[in-house]
Design a protein that fits this description.
Blueprint lengths: L3 E4 L2 E4 L4 E7 L8 E7 L6 E7 L5 E3 L7 E6 L4 E6 L8 E8 L14 E2 L3 E6 L1
């Protein structure tokens, strides 16, 4: 299993921006799709965005459409999440995940089999 390491989290004011990175370590990285999930205090983990390695097709939760952009750098095995117009409700621990197989349920945690440690994003009012 390839290790995933998130970075880029921090404290930002509402309306600001952050860019999260998820880098895969190791010589080999086998993945069909990468996803970003988040878990706010007292809430269940929820889907944020996903991207398919092969063609870069993207998928977004309705709550972040138009504000967040997921992208990937195939050569560096790195996935990014550009977060703009951040809101306090975006405050959460953000996790990147890798799915080794295709699935119609790209927004489900069960479709991913490798997870990073998470990075804290805090948006102040």
């Amino acid at each position: 299993q390839v290790q995933l390491v998130e970075s880029g989290g921090g404290l930002v004011q509402a309306g600001g921006s952050l860019r999260l990175s998820c880098a895969a370590s190791g010589r080999t990285f086998t993945s069909y799709r990468m996803g970003w999930f988040r878990q706010a205090p007292g809430k269940e983990r929820e889907f944020v965005a996903a991207i398919r390695w092969s063609d870069g097709n993207t998928y977004y939760a309705n709550s972040v459409k138009g504000r967040f952009t997921i992208s990937r750098d195939n050569a560096e095995n790195t996935v990014y999440l550009q977060m703009n117009s951040l809101k306090p409700e975006d405050t959460a621990v953000y996790y990147c995940a890798s799915g080794s197989r295709d699935s119609r349920w790209y927004g489900s945690s069960s479709s991913y089999d490798c997870w990073g440690q998470g990075t804290q994003v805090t948006v102040s009012s």
